[in-house]
Design a protein that fits this description.
Elements lengths: L10 H20 L6 H8 L3 H8 L2 H14 L10 H17 L1 H16 L1 H27 L9 H19 L5 H16 L11
Length: about 200
């Protein structure tokens, strides 16, 4: 059954939710290298056969976990203002990464992606979906003449979250609302200056 076809509240949905929750817990506790489908089944209190039949591999389970995280992420803002839309995006990323469980989960998945091609592919798909969802905020700003024609909407959205992920993975600095707002303002200023519009760049 396709993910979108799962009947809300049905047994299939309940099993998937339990298994993905257990997988997230195990990933946070032990990391990708020690993620084990049998352990996940035990944690979720479902049969091992069910887990192996539906997900098959650890990579398949992590891919579905990322799909689930994307499905449950808050929808993009549509305020009619570039800076307010980007600020909403930054605040969403900030709240996610600052959350003790979600932040640890993203850190574990990113570490896995650095050394496992299947995990990397799943992570790339996850972010491609999220960036594509928020890109219309920038495209609409171009249409309103807030930004130069040709501005790369995806690059602008990436620029918003990049400083926050740097804090999560590299510097360890607080991931707070002030950092989120600065990231949004920096991305908006650069976009207005034509940094993300190749036609506006000097040769």
């Amino acid at each position: 059954m396709a993910v979108g076809a799962i009947r809300p509240g049905g047994r299939t949905a309940r099993v998937r939710a339990a298994v993905l929750r257990a997988a997230g817990d195990a990933l946070v506790e032990h990391g990708y290298d020690h993620l084990d489908l049998a352990d996940v089944a035990r944690r979720a209190e479902v049969g091992k056969t069910t887990v192996y039949r539906r997900w098959g591999t650890v990579a398949g389970l992590v891919a579905d976990l990322l799909t689930d995280m994307a499905e449950h992420s808050s929808p993009r803002a549509d305020t009619g203002s570039l800076i307010e839309d980007l600020r909403a995006n930054a605040r969403l990323v900030q709240r996610t990464l600052a959350d003790p469980r979600q932040g640890a989960l993203f850190r574990a998945v990113i570490v896995a992606a650095a050394c496992n091609p299947a995990a990397a592919e799943a992570l790339h798909r996850f972010y491609a979906v999220r960036i594509a969802e928020w890109a219309p905020c920038v495209e609409q700003a171009v249409q309103r003449a807030e930004l130069p024609p040709g501005t790369d909407a995806c690059d602008v959205v990436r620029a918003v979250s990049a400083p926050l992920y740097y804090r999560l993975l590299i510097s360890g600095d607080p991931i707070d609302a002030a950092a989120a707002d600065r990231a949004a303002e920096a991305a908006a200023s650069a976009a207005r200056a034509g940094v993300y519009a190749p036609a506006s760049r000097p040769n």
